[in-house]
Amino acid sequence: MxxxxxxxxxxLFPGFLFLLAYAFFLQFLDRKIYxxxxxxxxxxxLQPFADFxxxxxxxxxxxxxxxxxxxxxxPLLALAAVMTAFLYVxxxxxxxxxxxxxxxxxxxxxTVPTIVLFVLGWLSRNVYSTIGGVRAVTQLFIYEVPFYLAxxxxxxxxxxxxxxxxxxxVAWQQKNLWFAIYQPIGLxxxxxxxxxxxxxxxFDIPEAETEILAGxxxxxxxxxxxxxxxxxxxxxxxxxxxxxxxxxxxxxxPWTFSPNWLGWIIGFLVFLAKTLxxxxxxxxxxxxxxxxxxxxxxxxGWKYLASAxxxxxxxxxxxxxxxxxxx
Length: 327
Fold this sequence. Notes:
Blueprint: H1 3-11, H2 16-37, H3 47-57, H4 68-86, H5 102-123, H6 127-162, H7 166-175, H8 179-182, H9 184-197, H10 209-212, H11 222-247, H12 260-288, H13 294-323
Helix pairs in contact: 2-11, 2-12, 3-11, 4-5, 4-11, 5-6, 6-7, 6-9, 6-13, 9-11, 9-13, 11-12
């Protein structure tokens, strides 16, 4: 790709500028759907952006004895990790930055915000923050195994043709059926795992406001809190886009369009439709459930989610061996 077009792709569209705008829009839509399901009006369109600007203007308060530089850098590190992960998710076609194995890199980058929350909680010197941080990393070890197994299922079935690349897996689905049809169990586990990764109800255990205030973010103020909340909104976009790419065919359709710009527009609209569908599922789970305890999550994660994910991987290996699906 031309270097100028590559810079436009990274920083403007469908890169960082679009990502931030879409993150605010998804937060608005999530809150709106959640409110309507509770028979409330919900926020106006620009409320998430206004909240972000307001938090940026608030005073930054340093808790006594904390490492100020670490407190400043941690939210930015988390935001940078998820924004980098977004560059490998196909938006209007295959990502120009794609390479073999980029799926592993993206999954790794998506774990960074949780690690940052643990570090922030530990550094805060606040009992509520510390408990929240420990809860966040404990939850990570529960949901991460089934989530990884579910997200790697499409890569196993696509085999060498997919190259463990998100764009390669999307291209494989353009010539075959969606992985949602081959791997419905994996799709369900991936959606539940994503809900837990984003710490949304019923998995908002680290930020249980009635028990530990805001958990690991209790001592965050001003721009630190603004960037941490923005990180979770961006993670929602990246997670929804990743599920749409791995299980729902991403932005590509079985047909090709001419000229190329027409295909890009259609692909972009398809991406929006699929990520909104994923958001609708996540918002419905959030509205229909209540917070569970960490021991209940432990049971659900290891007894049911991990078992279901292992079963799905076993079925994928059987399909590859007997039916030669990956060929």
